[in-house]
Specification:
It is a single chain. The chain is α/β, with parallel strands linked by helices. It contains 25 helices and 17 strands. Strand 10 (about 465-470), helix 20 (about 475-485) and strand 11 (about 490-495) form a beta-alpha-beta unit. The longest helix has 19 residues, at about 235-255. The two termini are about 50 Å apart. It catalyses: D-glyceraldehyde 3-phosphate + pyruvate + H(+) = 1-deoxy-D-xylulose 5-phosphate + CO2. It comes from Phocaeicola sartorii.
Amino acid sequence: MLFLHDIYHIISMEQDNLYNLLQSIDTPDDLRHLSADKLPEVCKELRQKIIDELSCNPGHFGSSLGVVELTVALHYVFNTPYDRIVWDVGHQAYGHKILTGRRDAFCTNRKLNGIRPFPSPSESEYDTFTCGHASNSISAALGMAVAAKKHGENNRHVVAVIGDGSMSGGLAFEGLNNASVTPNNLLIILNDNNMAIDRSVGGMKQYLLNLQMSEGYNRIRYKISQMFHRWGILNEERRKSLIRFNNSLKSMLVQQQNVFEGMNIRYFGPIDGHDVNNLAHVLKEIKDMQGPKLLHIHTTKGKGFGPAEKAATIWHAPGIFDKETGERIVVDTQGMPPLFQDVFGNTLLELAQTNDKIVGVTPAMPSGCSMNILMRAMPERGFDVGIAEGHAVTFSGGMAKDGLLPFCNIYSSFMQRAYDNVIHDIAIQKLNVVLCLDRAGLVGEDGPTHHGAFDLAYMRPIPNLTVASPYNEHELRCLMYTAQLPDKGPFVIRYPRGRGSLVDWKCPMQEIEIGKGRKLKEGKDIAVITLGPIGIQAEKAITHAEQETGKSIAHYDLRFLKPLDESMLHEIGRKFKQVVTIEDGVLKGGMGSAILEFMADNEYNPQVKRVGLPDQFVEHGSVKELYHICGMDEEGIYKVLISF
C-alpha cells in the first residue's frame, strides 16, 4: 500500500508540473489574474490536458483542440459567467469545461453520472444554453442580448461562438437576419475551420475561404466612430445610415460584397484563431462597440496534435489512442456483426448499382452514416448538403418529384429539425423519398441531445408515411429493397447506433409486404410485441422467463409501426389476456400507444404492459447502462414478463 501511495504521489507531482498554470485555474477569474504573456502557456497546458484525458476516455477530440486559444481569450477578456458565451456545436467546449470549475472532474466526461458531454445550464452557470445540436447560438445569444438591454444591463456582453460547419444551418441565417434589425450589441465569433464532422461543403464554405478584410481598416473605422460618438454627431440612426453607405462604398472599391456587412453587421477579420494574444487584443478592442458585430477567425481542427490535423474527420471522435504515437487503439472486429450504418451504406450501393434512379443525401454525415461508401463509388449520385436537415429533406423531395429516388439519411435526433419539411414537402405529395433514421433509440455517451427517442412518436401521426424498423441486418436490407420498388411512397426506416446481431449479414434481398409483421414464436399465455432490434433482447428475456415460470410466451415482430398489421393484432386481441409491448423510443405516443389504441378501438381488453423510454430526458452513459436504468435490457424485460 505504501508503494502504491508513493507511485500515486509521484504521478500527481508530475501532473502538477505538467499543468503548472492550469492547476491554479479553478475559475475564469483565476485566469484573468494572469498576465497576458502567460496565456500561450495556458493554451499549451489546456491542449495537453485535453489530449491526455481523451486518449483514455474517448470523446470529441479535434473540435475542442481547434478552439483552445479562442476559449482562453474569451474567458480572459469577458467577465464570465456574468457575460454570456453561447457555444454552438457543443463538442467545441471541452476547454471551456476545464477552465470553468470542471478540471478535476473532466475525467468523468461522458461517463454515467459524470459531467455531461455538451454544455448544459443544469451543470454549470458558465454553460449559458444547451448546445448539443448545431446552428442555434446566434438566435439564443440574440435573445440574451435583447433581455440584457430590456433589464438595463448595458454592461453585460453576449457572445455567440458559431462554426465547425454550423453556419450552413438555416437557423443561423434566421438569427443573423433578426440580429441585423433588432437593437443589440451581440458579438458573433465565426470559428472557420472548413469542417463540420466531415469536410464542410457548399457555397458558404467557399465564401468564407475567400473573404478578406483589412484589420487596420477596421481599427481606424472604430476609432473614428468613437470620436464621432464623443462629439455627439453619431446617433443610432445616423450610425446605421453611415454603415450602409460605408459598406456600399467598400464593396464598390474592393469589388466584393460582404454578406455580413450587407446585413448591417460589422465584420472583422479573418484573423489567426491560434494567436491567443492577438485574439485577446482584438476582443478587447471590439467588445464595447455598439451594434451587432462578427469576428471571423481561422482555426485548424485538431490543432496541436499532428495526426488530428492531417485527418480531421477520423479524429473528430477517434476513440482511445496512444497520445505519444498517435496510433488509434482499434478493437479487432473480425467475426463480429457489422454496424447497422455499414449495412445501410453497402446495401445502398448495391441497390444503386441496379437502380439508376437512386441517389443518396446526407446533412454533413457521410462517414457517420456510411453514405461515403456510395459517394466513393458513384460520386455523382451522393450529396452532402452540409448541416441543413430541413433542406436535405426538401431537396430530396424535389428530386423525387422529378423522377429520382433519394435515400435521405439523417440521425434520428437531427431529423427533429426537419419535421415540417417531412410533412409539407414529402408526405402531402406522397413523394417516394426513403428517410433513413440512423442512431434511433438510445445512443449512449452523447446523452439527451442525441438520443433518437422521439421518431416513432413524431412520425406515427403523419398521413401517407410508411414507418418501419428492422429486427436485424437481413430485415434492414429487405426493407431498403422494398422502399425503392415502384410506387411505395414516403418510407421511413429507423435503426440504432452500433452493431447488429448477424455476422453473416449479406443476404439476398426480397420484398416485404407493407404493413405485414411476423410471428417469431408461438405461445398461449403472454404475447410480446416488439419493434426493431430491441426484439433481440426480448427474445433472450422470453427464454429466461419461460424457463423460470413455465409460462408459454408468444413473440411477434411488428416490423411496421405504420401501417399496423391489423390481422396480427386481431389475432393477439382475441387470443391473449396479457400483452407486453417493447420499443426503443418514448412510451408516450409510440408503438405501445398505437397497440393500446387498436385494442380499445376494436373492444379488446388485454392487460397491456409497455416497455420503453420514460417521460423524461435520459442522461448520458453507455448504451448498456442506460438500457438497464430504463428497464429495457434482458433483465428489465424479464422482470416485466414474470410480473403477470
